[in-house]
Amino acid sequence: MNPRQIPLARPNFDERELDALRDVLDSGWVVQGPKVQALERALAQLHDVRHAIVVSSGTAALHVVFLATGIGPGEAIFVPSFAWPAAAHAATVCGARAVFVDCLAGTYNIDPDDLRAKVAACGQAGWGEARAIVPVHEFGLAADMSAVEAVAEEFGLAVIEDAACALGATYGGRKVGGLGRAGIFSFHPRKAVTTGEGGAVVTNDDALAETCRQLRNHGQGTADGRREFLTVGLNYRMTDLQAAIGCVQLAKLPEMLDARRRIARAYLAGLADCAGLRLPSDPDEHTWQTFMVVLDDAISRDGIAARLAERGVHAGPGSVAGHCARVYRERLGYSPGDLPVSARLARQGLALPLYAGMTDADVEHCIRSLRDVLKGPRP
Questions:
Q1: Which regions of the chain does DSSP assign to beta strands (E)?
Q2: Which residues pair with 221 in a beta bridge?
Q3: Could you tell me if 78 and 99 are in contact, meaning their C-beta atoms sit under 8 angstroms apart?
Q4: Which residues are identified as catalytic?
Q5: Domains in the chain, ordered, with CATH?
Q6: How confident is the model over 295-317, as pLDDT tens digits?
Q7: pLDDT at position 2, please?
């Protein structure tokens, strides 16, 4: 008999999303329209910012905000290595250089000490003019923003938060996204709130917000009361179909975050004395987009994942180390040993199933399966 299958992630959809889609289809207005505006208002209210500009993906949001801030050739953008490399890619597309920074073993977030060292060395190393720091709130846990802000202030850098995984998260009681000049979110299916694909820029900067709106919509704006192409732009619009789903999803966010925290607490308790792994940090403000353990070096992460799959538990890598990617090894000369913590997190990090629809029995099966697999012959 095949074991029940527990996926790594699963969107939380029900009849409410279907009803919202029917309303949009019935209206005939399926591109950027009233549902997009409604989603933007709700996002701005949720994160205590004046502006939210929704776009087609989190990467599009990064690209738009980098363009809007004028990031370009000859400049260096500091990004954590252990994160999806969207920020590094967007900076590179803009002509800037991505400078990877190592991460902390417990929180998986950017290491403030390594950040300061990299910024201080930037000019002498020939990386370009230091321009911006892009802290990633990895897996829904805010980076140490006080330390990041201190480095930014010392060197006169902008802070652009990559909060792709951290919708609804806070840092010291402050909502993420609005802590720097701008922030971005993602609505990919592995996020707590999904629109299939989608993203958003949030900011309190009125001029920056207007430029982002123009850039996402072919550079269009209004001049002398008429539509005009005011800048060279792109088509990064979100559809009203996606936004309608997003509005429903956003209304569910409190209950989905509660469920994620409940599941994470169960993992932490059930694996507390489990040999062969290190558990993640557990601050109260964590929103748990992903639950990742770090296996001991002697253990094959891929081997463990394969044996879990035999039991119906779909686990896998937590994220990647950007400095280990072939494109950045070839372009910028990185090697894995340059940022050892990030390299190890990418090599030994194991993400376990985590989504709002998991039952207590599902979580218990995942815990028991991982414990059993780690006790058995090592792959």
A1: 51-55, 75-80, 97-101, 129-133, 158-162, 170-171, 174-175, 182-186, 199-203, 220-223, 226-229, 277-278, 291-295, 316-317, 349-352
A2: 228
A3: yes
A4: 191
A5: 15-247 (3.40.640.10), 253-375 (3.90.1150.10)
A6: 999 999 999 999 999 999 999 99
A7: 67
